[in-house]
Amino acid sequence: MRRWLAFVAIAFYVLHAVVHLSRGEPYDLLWGCHLALLLVAAGLLRNNASLNAIGLLWSCFGLPIWLIYTFTGGEFMPTAAVTHLGAFLIGMYGAGRFGIPRGSAWQALAAYLALWVLTRAITPHSANINLAFSVWPGWEDRFPTYPIYFAMLLVSGAFTFALTEMLFRRFHPAGAPRRGI
User: What pTM did the predictor assign?
Assistant: First the structure.
């Protein structure tokens, strides 16, 4: 089941990638929400609780943002729904199998900061991948400058990662015996 779900996660990512590549948007493959699927898949394939946890925590941060975007008039893409929900659900399976290691929140934050740096280095400003360049359109009145917006994202991400690690560890502590999975 573990390996099968890892390949399902990879297939979900590839399916979404095909859509973006066909639209001439290769940079959209670097959204953290979508890469969360690949982290979860890598965690399952390598029996690595940390990789799975990072992907799961990224999905916990990205899924609500994507839902807000989608339900406030953003473009709905069925393959995006599969990546966002898939990362969360398959990541939850991995959490049940491996547990959530201590320090996953800080690892998720460090990995996300590395992704933010990469995004700023190789993607166009106009795409605003991972919100790495500018305040999201419509939020300018709340965040008059990008540094304030980025600080809010950083604090929100750190809070989300820490809270979800704490909650998931209550139900899926690392190293707990797993039966029937």
Answer: 0.91
